[in-house]
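One such given next:

>
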Amino acid sequence: MRSTLHLSRVLPHVRFNPRVELLGSLRPPIISYRLTSSLTRPINSVNQIHGHSRIVQSSLRSYRSFHTSIIRRQSQQSTKEVSSTSTSTSTSTSKLSPHDSKASGFGDIKRLFLLAKPETTPMTIALCLLAVSSAISMSIPLIIGKFLDSGNEQLQTINIAGYELTMYSFLGITGIMFIIGAIANTGRVVILRTVGEKLVARLRTRTLKASLEQDAAFLDNNRVGDLISRLSSDASIVSRSVTQNISDGIRAVLSGGVGITMMMLVSWKLTSMMLLLAPPLGAMAFIYGRRIRNLSRDLQKSIGDLTKVAEEQLNATRTIQAYGGEIMEVGKYATNVRSVFKIGFKEATTSGLFFGTTGFLANMGLIALLGMGSSMIHNGALTVGELSSFMMYAVYTGSSMFGLSNFYSELMKGAGAAARIFELNDRKPAIPSTIGIKPTFTDFKAPIEFRHVGFEYPTRPNIKIFNDLSFKILPGEHVCIVGPSGSGKSTITSLFLRFYDVGEGEICLNGKNIKDFNLRQFRKQIGVVQQEPALFSGTILENITYGIRNYTNEELDSALSRANVKIFISEFPEGLQTIVGPRGTQLSGGQRQRIALARSLLLNPQILVLDESTSALDSKSEKTIAETLDQRCTDGKTTISIAHRVSTIKHSTRVIVLGREGYVVETGSFEELRADPHSSLNMLLAKNEEAGDSASSVNDQKMDMIVEAELEAEKEEEELAKRDLSFDK
């Protein structure tokens, strides 16, 4: 399905690295008229419904569908993989390649911390609050130890750092400390959550911006579902890694440091014994962290693949139901679910083995400490309170070591997710959108020239679309480009808007190569209307004025009239405020086309490109549009139409006929070409009529089959009803 969208407003940065071939010889044009009319499409084709993440999908899918529709129209052959160097190079520039799995990920970790740099002040405050709450928490073992050692003195006074405190004073001070700790902990959580939300919002915005700036080759090779996965789950994991996880890691470091210091003050012998566990636990944590990072990256990739499938299925629900493909699609989704489960199971097994082993070692260490501590109490080297405090600090320190292990593993998960996001953010489009000279108004009132253009799509480098294509469009002309299916009609639009760059030759405006223009400024002066508009969720008014900031009510009213939109808008109770539904599914194809036309007419561009944009219009609406286009010619504005209907072609001032070999086979006015019985245009239109008759016959046969199936179903229901009645009797 092709998307009719004001692409010059939505996605202004697209192109790829051209591959230039030198042709040793040029063959004369070979004309072939094997035309596949749009009428041969199945009668039960349906509009796709929207999936999740409306805003992201509206931008990405609308842009992408425009290009995929062009590719599908170029060839009816199945494309094979090309193992040549040029193919590999082309593919590598458009696909996202995963990071090296053997890399430690410390480069990604550094970038993770840099992401949080704008939030340095609130993060510092949160860490100070963390230090306060941790210090108070670490005082608990000391308090309990003092209580135990004061047991024989009936707990009347307690000595703290040489100060004698009464029991009530001690309890009061302790209570105040705990209140302060609770307040500090609350502030820490609130600040970190806020910072996390800011971070994930910033990261998602940057990632979406990077996605929208990518070239057509990139969007041809990367499905929307994977991009949505990077925007949603990957961004959340990264945010958690540099906010809450950092807090937990610092808490573990503080608790561990204080715990070890206090244990050294109590007994350096017991502390030395406990520290013997640090090297093996540290080595295990490092190995576990690297393993969990790779698994996390694989898991996020699998989730991205799962999202791709779900997005595709949800947007094609009606088609799936029409062809009875529910079971097949559920099976396809289940296969991807199993893939996610397998990786999740590996991650769970790895985590279980790590925490189980380290927990066992820590518990064995505590048993050893109890044994040695009991011996020291017997020898008078320790008191019961000191051993109790030591054991509690040992537990705190052990928990801190587990916390550090978890911190490292979560950091590695964040690095794995960040790698996928950085792959996208770091990829630069082939041609910058803001570099180049700004086109002038005079440039757009000058001729458009295709000079010896050669081109092939990066996804199909072995199939030549254009071979020495040359033609010229004068200002104020309404040129209609026609040709058989696969001749590259829509590709001309794509090349002119620089969604792709030509491989050979050049496209010029006012004698200047369009590559020299600032791409964003260049596209702002061109209006584009496609056959299948993909409108945004919102009102009719919002869709018509999309991307157009300055307009008057008179200009809006004029655009509505010239696009023949007023007729059906007046039938809606809400008028221009009528909600069109996701992708405009609540409107008919003709209504969507007229809204898209009104948008371009409101923009009032000097150059207007129409790609089968009147295919769904009735004769009255088409006549109104034809009058509008005639007026544009009178005003000296250029219009390029791609069409196959005679009613559209005959209103143009000149017709360019393309052949399958990528050449212009003939050009002239409609009357001149139509008057020649041997003209390529007449042969093409004759093939078109034959294809239309054939399509009608096929559709009639399908309708007969559907009616017969419905009659058989009714007969079966009647028989079942009779059986039920006889059974009741």
User: Anything to note?
Assistant: Residues 106-426 form a domain with the ABC transporter transmembrane region fold fold (CATH 1.20.1560.10).
